[in-house]
């Protein structure tokens, strides 16, 4: 499962670099959870794109266990002003619920393997359920 941390706010670039460095240097994650920077497109005055997100590649729920603790330690030490959004690719429904519980106060959104948000499940308020 891919867990992509994005920050939205006035200091998001600086805070995202801080989060990347924190997670990358965390001894409890090293060798168990690969942490990679996600770079956006370069601006005309840049050689390479700026940091857009931090990607954690998680193979099992057991390797996921330490990630929320490391994130919480970073958050408590930095008190970020930016909103944190976690996008998740390749998670099962139970894993999504576990992520939502592990990251309280953070928006956790499932993303389909192609990078698009999945279609909502038909429910009582949809046209399909209404017989249309």
Please supply descriptive tags for the structure shown above:
132 residues; alpha+beta; Alpha-Beta Plaits; disordered C terminus
Descriptive report:
The chain has helices at residues 12-25, 61-64, 67-78, 93-102; strands at residues 2-8, 35-39, 51-57, 83-89, 107-111. The longest helix is centred in the N-terminal third of the chain and has 14 residues, at 12-25. With 132 residues, the chain is an alpha+beta fold. 30% of the residues lie in helices and 23% in strands. The N and C termini lie far apart (36 Å). It has four helices and five strands. The chain has a five-stranded mixed beta sheet, covered by helices on one side. Mean pLDDT is 82; it is low at 119-132. It has one domain: Alpha-Beta Plaits. Strand 4, helix 4 (93-102) and strand 5 form a beta-alpha-beta unit.
Helices and strands, in order, run as EHEEHHEHE
Helix/sheet category: alpha+beta
- Mean pLDDT equals 82
At CATH level 2, the architecture is 2-Layer Sandwich
State the separation between the terminal residues, measured CA to CA.
Answer: 36 Å
Put simply, the count of helices is 4
- As for the number of domains, it is 1
Largest sheet: 5 strands, mixed
Shape: globular
Strand content: 15-25%
Gyration radius, in Å: 17 Å
Spatial order of the strands forming the largest sheet: 2-3-1-4-5
In percent, how helical is the residue content?
25-40%
* Unreliable runs: 119-132
Quote the CATH topology.
Answer: Alpha-Beta Plaits
Tally of extended strands?
5
In the CATH hierarchy, what is the class? Alpha Beta
